[in-house]
Amino acid sequence: MKQISHIIGGEVVTDGTTAPVFNPATGRQSADVLLGGEEIVERAVDVATNAHADWAALPPAKRASVMYALREIMRARADEIAETISAEHGKTHDDALGEVTRALEVVEFASSAPQLLKGDFSREVAGGVDTYAERQPLGVVAGITPFNFPFMVPLWMIPMALACGNTFVLKPSEKDPSSANLIHDLFTEAGLPPGVLNVVHGAKDAVDAILDHKDITAISFVGSTPIAEYVYARGCASGKRVQALGGAKNHMVVLPDADLDQAADALMGAGFGSAGERCMAISVAVPVGEETADRLVEKLAPRVRAMKVGPATDNEVEMGPLINAPHRDRVARLIDRGEKEGAKVVVDGRGLALQGYEDGYWLGGTLLDHVRPGMSVYDEEIFGPVLSVVRAGDYGDAVELIHNNPYANGTAIFTRDGDAARNFASRIKVGMVGVNVPIPVPVGYHSFGGWKRSSFGAHGIYGPEAVHFYTRLKTVTMRWPTGIRTGADFKFPTMGS
Q1: Tell me, what DSSP letter sits at residue 204?
Q2: How far apart are CA 287 and CA 368, in angstroms?
Q3: pLDDT band at 184 (very low <50, low <70, confident <90, very high)
Q4: Kind and range of the H or E run holding 33
């Protein structure tokens, strides 16, 4: 049986208890992952601390050269990376390749470290006085990442943190841990020195050790809202800088003038891609007006029924399994409750079984109509292949629906009306907005981040926001002696002369 170990200082570390890792398509165990706790975290932080001084002292261009090399390695090995992702997560090969591509964008942006870390300089702010500002690294930083993007999300964090001169401790999800070790190996191949990136596998005790460790200066987290809130509160209480990205309930408003075939196709990919296990998945369609709703459901239903579900090894598959049996069962129970609460099950994905894969964690695409706030399927983040249709009487009702939701990660509007689209983009109180774009995840040179209970902390992840998160500002004001003495001055200093 394959064993997935910690990697600290470039060395494999086999301490800890083990937990099983499963192939979601077959339901069979594929590996054991070692789970460490406080001692393993302590060891990783010590190594990262020792590696920091030399890494931070490198010119930004030298650090950027690792990112350039990593980019080429990732391009050359993209299929291999995608296969590693799919084997433990279950998403289709094309979807996994998309994950690799979006990770590449951040690596490419991090390659611009010399430009990103340029400071500011002002000459003669007063007589003979100059001022300059620079961004300096924090030290040892950590990332706690989720199962749904085991390759991309760590690379939303690591390249920017390293480019800024920090060293890194990664604690990935124990559900699909192989991608994290592969990331370490790819960085090593790209020339990253040992100890700059360390991988620690574990559960809650490892997370708590990271949150409490005095030498970890900053933490990036992506996961569910309850855990994001916990990470933020505990991390901040121990004096750390924390960004914690949580859950979502993303709505897509469909106006009566929209191209409904385009909208239906967009909802298929946004709602059922990666089996709905995306924090930016569209889980709520909001058609405006009864006629629009009826027509949209008519177009969606046959598409959902025809969607091909199966293992990632089948190149024709459009959706794979869920991550594990408990999660699949939870999603099915939410559908049960939604039906009892009055939602109409238009397409039912419960009970799906595939020949030869009977033990896999399958749930077919599910389409629910006449969903309302207050129903479990609306109020809870489902994180599965369930698309709910909530009918809005008019545009104002659709906006109010979104604003009344506690989450504000992403949203979209489909329309041909430029004025309506402009109003929506400006007015809506959500962090990421798409106009005729169903999943508005920003490219790598912008930053990702939701509002309200979808994100805790002042900074978005990756892009320009990451430079500010992973560095701190130092401002230097200097005057060189000229031989002229003016005596002591006890008033508050100004730069007027």
Answers
A1: H
A2: 13
A3: very high
A4: strand 28-35
| Annotation says 279 is catalytic | yes
Q: What is the C-alpha separation between 496 and 465, in angstroms, rounded?
A: 34
What single letter denotes the amino acid at residue 406? P
Beta carbons within 8 Å of 153's beta carbon, 6+ residues apart:
145, 146, 222
pTM above 0.85, yes or no: yes
Contact between residue 253 and residue 414 where contact means Cβ atoms under 8 Å apart? yes
Domains in the chain with CATH codes: 2-246+454-476 (3.40.605.10), 250-435 (3.40.309.10)
For 279-331, the DSSP string reads: TT-EEEEEEBSHHHHHHHHHHHHHHHHH--B--TTSTT-SB---S-HHHHHHH
The neighbour count for residue 224, using CB atoms within 10 Å, is 16
Amino acid, res. 148 = N
Query: How many whole angstroms separate alpha carbon 216 and alpha carbon 48?
Result: 10
90, two tokens: 């279950």
Provide the mean pLDDT of the chain. 96
| Mean pLDDT across 126-153 | 96
Q: What is the largest CA-CA distance in the chain?
A: 90
For residue 489, count CB atoms less than 10 angstroms from its CB and return exposed for 0-12, middle for 13-18, buried for 19 or more.
exposed
**Taking a C-beta distance cutoff of 8 angstroms, is the pair 127, 154 a contact?**
no
Bridge partner list, 367:
347, 387
CA 422 → CA 10, 415, 417, 425, distances in Å? 51, 11, 9, 5
The token pair that represents 370 in the structure block:
């006449």
Q: Contact at 8 Å (CB) between 421 and 267?
A: no
- What pLDDT is stored for residue 482 in this prediction? 77
Among the listed residues 424, 360, 435, the one whose alpha carbon sits nearest the alpha carbon of residue 396: 424
Indicate the length of the chain as a whole number.
497
- Tokens 């291999």 found at: 80
The secondary element (H helix, E strand) that includes residue 42 is helix 38-57
Q: What is the 8-class DSSP label of residue 442?
A: P
- Indicate the residue type of 489: D
User: Which SS3 state, helix, strand or coil, does residue 396 take?
Assistant: helix
pLDDT tens, residue by residue, 99-116 = 999 999 999 999 999 999
Q: Give the active site residue among 161, 248, 270, 279.
A: 279
Whole-number Å distance between alpha carbons of 169 and 144: 9
Instruction: Name the nearest CA neighbour of 287 among 441, 414, 471, 131.
Output: 414
Query: What pLDDT band is residue 495 in, cutting at 50, 70 and 90?
Result: low
Cβ burial, residue 474 (10 Å; 0-12/13-18/19+): exposed
Q: Residue 493 has what pLDDT? A: 74
